[in-house]
Amino acid sequence: MQPVVELKNLSKTIGKKKIIDDLNLSLYPGQITGFLGPNGAGKTTTIRMMVGLMSITSGDVLIEGVSLSDDFEGGLSKIGVIVENPEMYKFMTGYKNLVHFARMHEGVTKERIDEVINQVGMQNRIQEKVSTYSLGMRQRLGLAQALLHRPKFLILDEPTNGLDPAGIREFRMYLRKIADEEGVSVFVSSHMLSEIELMCDRIAVIQNGKLIDIKEVAEVQESHYYIEAMPLETAETFFQAKGFTVESHKDGFIINAEKPQIPGLIQELTTLEHQIFIVQPHRKTLEDQFLEMTGGGQIAEAHTK
Ligand SMILES: Nc1ncnc2c1ncn2[C@@H]1O[C@H](COP(=O)(O)OP(=O)(O)OP(=O)(O)O)[C@@H](O)[C@H]1O
Question: What Pfam families does the annotation carry (predicted)?
Fold first, then answer.
């Protein structure tokens, strides 16, 4: 599959400080990728370079093959961006806002405006003033606005900040629909790991300006097993000696193995005269994983900017 967006050796130096260090990342159609990292890891800087709000020191961003270094406006015209609180004209209706924003792009028809309204489920309220909308509805109107020119790539920075659980769920649902139906590639930064876990197909983790991991969310969730075996101590040593991380619990322990490895490992353990009582997948939360990957790094706080 051809990526929609590619970051190629992307770097940013401010003064003497390397803030983003040789970042390589591909984002694919129909996929929602979460962008995670501790405070100060470089998420905002990366996103600002991707949307042209900050210059690139070296490397490049390709959007549908168009290089931002070679054709800045051509590349940017293919992106839809949603920030935390989209700017809207509060005393105009949702519909008039969309008509206004549609004028900023070439070729956005009335039919397209109606289409995006349907996509975010705003048909019943679109003729009302934005000042009467809940935060969740404003956010969905922001999503509709970002989709007007049919971008194949959407960037969302903390999109659900301030939304209540129902608002978050609705937003997530519409985002999924847009990724599935229009094949849009979505890149979302959020500090809410549980939210990212539900919303995203993949996560990219950045720390100190470097990409430290990129994984499928399903893969993150299925790579741990809880084992109860006797004698417990030698069973734990057996896994440690093979390089697995072993987290001890009262009657058993958790290891970071992949499913195909399990039968062989258990067989070996049995040969070494251990009795096996329980082997079951252990679902680690994304938060556990994140802390493991970043060595206990703090989860980035919500932006207050
Ligand atoms: N204009 C600047 N001059 C100097 N250093 C900067 C500048 N902008 C950002 N930085 C530094 O670059 C690093 C990355 O910042 P960035 O805002 O991209 O991180 P972040 O991952 O978005 O963090 P947060 O989650 O806290 O918003 C930080 O150490 C920050 O202090």
Answer: ABC_tran
Q: Which ligand 1 atom minimizes the distance to the CA of 48? A: 18
Contact between 4 and 63 (Cβ < 8 Å): yes
Cα 87-91-95 angle, rounded to 5 deg = 75
Ligand 1 atom closest to the CA of 300, numbered from 1: 25
The answer to whether the beta carbons of residues 159 and 81 sit under 8 Å apart is no
Q: Give the global pTM.
A: 0.77
Residue of the CA atom closest to atom 25 of ligand 1: 39
ipTM, interface predicted TM-score of the complex: 0.94
- The DSSP symbol for 283 reads -
Q: Domain 5-219 sits in which CATH superfamily? A: P-loop containing nucleotide triphosphate hydrolases (3.40.50.300)
When pLDDT is averaged across residues 54-64 and rounded to a whole number, the result is: 93
- What fold characterizes domain 224-282? Alpha-Beta Plaits (3.30.70)
What are the boundaries of each domain within the chain? Answer: 5-219, 224-282
Q: Is the dihedral of CA 131, 199, 67, 148 positive or negative?
A: negative
